Structure formats: C-alpha cells, structure tokens
Amino acid sequence: DGADGGDEQSADDKRGDDSKRAQADQVPKFVPGVEIKTPAPTLAQAPQLWKGTRELLKTSIDALRDAVKSQLADEGGAFADEVGDNLQKLDRILGKLDKRLINSLTSAAETEDPASRAASMKESKAILADYIRYVRSEPLIEHLDSNPFGVKTNLKVTLSNSLSQVAKAIG
C-alpha cells in the first residue's frame, strides 16, 4: 500500500514539476527595458512580433499625447495650437515604421514557391534595414523617451529589441 501511495505522490510531484517548468518557459513576449534571452522568433512569428510592436508604440505615443493634452488643458491660444501641431509629428514615427514589414514577412512565411519566398525575404531585409536606419537617426524617438510628462515610452528600447528579433527571424 505504501508503495502505491508513494507512486501517486511521485506522479503528483512530476505534474507539479512539469507545471513549474511550463510556467518558467512562458517568458513574457516583451518587457520594455529588460533584456530577456528568448529564442529567436520563427519567420511565421515575425509578422505578429512587428504588429505587436507597432501596437505597443501606438499605445505609448497615445499615452504621451493624452498626458500632454491633460497638462496643457488650461493653456489657450497660440501656445495650445503650437503644441497640438507638434503632437501631430508623433504620428510620423508610426507612419515611417508602417505595415510594409508585416506584409512582406507574411508573404515570405506563407509562400511555398522558393523564388517568391526569396524575393519576399529580400524585400523584408531591405525594409528592416530601412527601419533600423530610421530608428538610429530619428531624434524624435529619444526626445519622446525623455519627455517631461511622466510617461515612460521606452520607444528606442522597444524598437531596438523588436527589430533585433525580426532580424534573427529572417536571418
């Protein structure tokens, strides 16, 4: 009898160990400012990775926009108009880091034809290189990260990590 009970306990322990292992394997997909050693995404995962990054950027930019509008709500006239005009410049980041990469990565992942896949991969690499150059050279990104409105955007870190992961996925 004792041996059977011990076997059941061992099975429970094993299930518990498996559960703990599964939880440890479930690393958050993205934590701004924290480098997590994760396996490179596959080509099939890369479009969703970039889509998620764009959504995160939009959320951060919108939060900053709301904070600025809230803090300057009592301001009026030309100053408020000027700030409103400057807030429109925030959209240029998402405009430049557009959906072209999602589309080309999706095409590369879904096509069965080797020639079409190679063309889509070449296009993806060119778009990725363009995005990396933009992130490195756009002063607005660092300016937003150091904003005085108490909103942590972490755009540079977010973009750097995401673009690195996409680069690993496409080789």
Quick structural gist:
The chain is mainly α.
Describe the model.
This protein has 171 residues and is an all-alpha fold. The chain is built from eight helices and no strands. The longest helix has 26 residues, at 46-71. The model is unreliable at 1-31 (pLDDT under 50).
Instruction: Classify the secondary structure makeup into a structural class.
Output: mainly alpha
- Major sheet, described briefly? none
Name the helicity range: over 70%
Count of separate DSSP helical elements: 8
Report strand %: under 5%
Q: How far apart, in Å, are the first and last alpha carbons?
A: 57 Å
The succession of helices and strands, N to C, reads HHHHHHHH
Our Rg estimate from Cα atoms comes to 23 Å
Q: Which shape, going by the Cα principal axes? A: elongated
Uncertain parts: 1-31
Number of strands: 0
Mean pLDDT: 81
Sum up the structure in keywords:
8 helices; single chain; elongated; 171 residues; mainly alpha; disordered N terminus; 0% strand
